[in-house]
Design brief:
The protein is an alpha+beta fold. Helices cover 18% and strands 38% of the residues. It has 13 helices and 50 strands. Strands 1, 2, 3, 4, 5, 6, 7, 8 and 9 form a nine-stranded antiparallel β-sheet that branches. The chain is elongated. The relative contact order is 0.05. It comes from Pseudocitrobacter cyperus.
Length: 763
């Protein structure tokens, strides 16, 4: 009992047994960081685009700064440890100041503490309140031990690097560098190294690495804030540039450097320092009194050498440091020798001429396939992957061919992706340069002949400036005698990229014709059938030696069918659909009746008279509006008139002609009869080379069927209802299934040798 009371007393003294500690003593890790902004004093003109994103980045940075910290509390002080340093602060009346922020200490549940900052705490030009929730851990906790080890290692490495960098900056020389001046607004210019890529951003898309938390960007009207990012892919560092409205004194180095860890270099308008997260950072600003606008740059890097280079870049916003080592795309007009001397490098050390040509010709090969070679390249483009050393990868060069002169392309802004951008380029000789947001940095134009131009587009994101200019020298040396163009016949060169393509036309290179918007072209690109002014031909697959098409009116309704020869001459235009037989006989008509038109003689062999006409075994079978059938030969001569039915019997040159009075005839292809007999149907039976002849009443019932020869001789009398061939037997069927007759199939076929023909037992 005494031991229980002792434990109970200790519980009451230490924690009240309610899960809440009564003392701060011990080690704590950060469990959560919450940042709440007070926007109650925001002005109506505050920039709503930047406000949320700026506050999001501020909160993110506060959380990152505190995430890996741990604390050791005593009743009167707290020692805090960050990845880069540590310090001890006194606790007075449950309040403590950490990193220039005043916190109130409150006890939480579950062995936790809360550090609550004052309302209105300065959080990067915004008022906020920060809540740090700390969880208590034992001194031998594996999580704490690991954190302590990591903290010692990171602080030691940080201090060593800082000492090294402090010494580095004691002897720093900021030299001029080779770069390109960029005018970012009327008042501000900055020079970018040739390996840096500058991108125009908007506040809406500037959601990463824009350092929005460092600047007073609220109260800016839409469009007043300009943001640019730049980056060196080789060295993997870069920065962000901002232009915005402000008054003198809104930005000061004193205010900026107040919360930084260690300043390494400071000038009148800029500094290099370790920021609150222990990262190397460069800052520079320039103010224009006339426009009352700030130009600010912020950059980060991993090494002292890199951050010094960033500072050299940022300070060129001050005209005093713009320097004389400038380069521009206008150097594209320099000779190869002059360009190599300027850069102290060889074009051949950067690009392999043979490999570039190989990639270009491969892209052109695809573009010059038929029928693509005849289509306007405004609707097609090929890419040539080229190796760029600075990127350590291949970038795509855009390859296009145009049936226009260089002057026409430039004057009418018809060049590829630049025309999509609606960018007006600046012409320098055979090069068209583009600035701002554009798919391409420049287009290199090569004259093939008076009406054919090769356009090579170099993307803005491909390589650095030096590589882009060296590549132009490679383009100058392209050997066009080895290009796919050299293998194209002269008669086709004049038709290259001449027509607007039809996207629904799946042409193949070996096809005789291709459909284009202008009409129909042959395999050499010659327009043989132009589209009419008041309608449109819709071509079918050709039926050599003819080309078929429907003719549509302006509303897209079919108004006629047309037949052309292979030279594009119109041979026939009719209101009915056209079917061509025997390579010259067209069955068509006036929209109601059909006839037969000879495409060789361009004459009607049979005027439009019939409801339908079909060719069966070389003979036309036609029927009229009264339901009468006719047999017509290929010269238009009617062989059989007004039968009830005519059809082919499945044996070549044998047709069944059914009369109105139960009379049946079998005739040949000249209309000559083999026999006449009473009957209503005739069916050829190949195994016995004979026909089933049948007679049925008007209702098609009471069928009487037998077997008849080609000469009309009855082989088996008409006493049955049908037949069936099975194995070696011919079964003659009766209405009574059990009462059928069996005949030997071979004997039936040779019936003349087996007279009288006898039934055989069922197998």
């Amino acid at each position: 009992m005494k031991g229980f009371i002792t434990i109970l007393a200790a519980c009451v003294l230490l924690s009240g047994c309610d899960g809440v500690d009564k003392t701060h003593e011990g080690y704590y890790l950060v469990a959560d960081v919450k940042v709440e902004f007070d926007n109650s004093h925001a002005k109506p003109q505050d920039n709503r685009l930047l406000f949320p994103e700026q506050q999001r980045q501020i909160a993110k940075n506060i959380k990152q700064v505190n995430a890996d910290n741990y604390f050791n509390f005593t009743p009167s002080s707290v020692t805090y440890y960050t990845p880069i340093n540590n310090g001890t602060k006194t606790i007075e009346n449950e309040r403590v100041q950490l990193n220039d922020v005043d916190y109130t200490i409150t006890q939480g549940k579950g062995h936790t503490l809360q550090l609550l900052s004052d309302k209105g705490t300065d959080c990067g030009y915004h008022a906020c309140q920060i809540t740090l929730t700390l969880k208590k851990v034992s001194a031998d906790s594996p999580e704490l031990v690991k954190r302590q080890q990591e903290q010692k290692q990171s602080e030691s490495a940080y201090q060593a690097q800082m000492r090294e960098n402090i010494d580095y900056f004691k002897h720093l020389s900021l030299d001029d560098f080779l770069g390109t001046p960029f005018s970012l607004s009327k008042s501000f210019v900055i020079k970018m190294p040739i390996d840096m890529r500058l991108v125009d951003r908007t506040p809406r898309d500037c959601t990463r690495d824009c350092n929005l938390d460092a600047l007073p960007l609220a109260s800016q009207a839409d469009g007043d804030t300009l943001i640019f990012t730049y980056y060196s892919q080789q060295e993997r560092h870069g920065g962000t540039l901002y232009i915005f409205n402000g008054k003198p004194g809104d930005i000061t180095l004193t205010q900026l450097l107040k919360n930084q860890t260690q300043v390494l270099l400071q000038t009148d308008n800029g500094a290099i320092y370790y920021n609150s997260q222990g990262k190397l950072e460069a800052f520079y600003y320039h103010y224009d009194d006339a426009s009352q606008r700030y130009f600010i740059g912020i950059a980060n890097a991993a090494t002292a050498k890199q951050i010094a280079r960033e500072f050299s870049v940022l300070r060129t916003m001050d005209p005093r440091y713009l320097g004389k080592k400038t380069v521009s795309m206008s150097y594209l007009q320099l000779s190869r020798q002059a360009l190599e001397e300027k850069y102290q490098a060889k074009v051949s050390d950067v690009f392999n001429q043979a490999e570039v040509e190989k990639a270009m010709w491969k892209a052109m090969d695809l573009m010059l396939e038929k029928p693509t070679r005849f289509f306007n390249p405004g609707s097609s483009m090929m890419i040539a992957p080229i190796w760029f050393p600075s990127k350590k990868t291949k970038e795509n060069i855009y390859v296009q061919l145009y049936a226009h002169s260089i002057d026409t392309l430039v004057d009418e802004d018809k060049i590829g992706l630049a025309s999509i951008d609606k960018q007006k380029g600046k012409r320098e000789g055979n090069v068209v340069l583009y600035t701002g947001k554009s798919y391409v940095r420049y287009n290199y134009l090569i004259k093939i002949n008076e009406q054919l131009t090769l356009v090579l587009g170099v993307p803005d994101a491909s390589g650095d400036l030096r590589e882009q200019m060296f590549l132009a020298q490679v383009f100058k040396q392209l050997d066009l005698t080895k290009s796919p163009l050299a293998a194209i016949p002269e008669q086709e060169l004049k038709n290259l990229f001449k027509y607007e393509s039809q996207r629904n036309d799946s042409g193949r290179s070996k096809d005789r014709y291709f459909t284009v918007a202008e009409g129909l072209i042959d395999n050499h690109g010659n327009l043989i059938i132009p589209q009419p002014e008041n309608g449109r031909y819709r071509f079918f697959h050709p039926q050599p030696p003819f080309i078929l098409s429907t003719l549509e009116d302006k509303e897209g309704q079919d108004i006629a069918w047309s037949v052309f020869n292979e030279q594009g001459k119109l041979l026939l235009q009719a209101k009915s659909s056209v079917d061509i037989f025997e390579q010259h006989l067209a069955v068509t008509g006036d929209g109601v009746k059909k006839g037969i038109f000879d495409l060789n003689t361009l004459q009607w062999l049979l005027p439009p008279t019939f409801r339908s006409i079909r060719l069966d075994e070389g003979i036309f079978i036609a029927d009229d509006a009264d339901g009468k059938y006719y047999l017509v030969d290929q010269k238009g001569k009617t062989l059989v008139h007004a039968a009830k039915m005519i059809y082919h019997t499945a044996k070549k040159n044998h047709f069944a002609v059914i009369g109105d009075n139960g009379e049946l005839s079998m005739v040949d292809g000249q209309g000559q009869p083999f026999f006449h007999h009473r009957g209503t149907s005739l069916e050829y039976i190949p195994p016995i080379d004979a026909w089933l002849i049948a007679f049925s009443d008007a209702d098609g019932e009471n069928t009487q069927a037998g077997i008849i020869s080609e000469q009309g001789e009855m082989i088996i009398p008409m006493e049955y209802s049908g037949y069936r061939v099975t194995d070696r037997y011919l079964q003659m069927l009766r209405s009574d299934e059990k009462n059928r007759a069996w005949f030997d199939l071979q004997q039936v076929k040779e019936w003349r040798n087996h007279q009288p023909l006898q039934e055989v037992p069922a197998p």
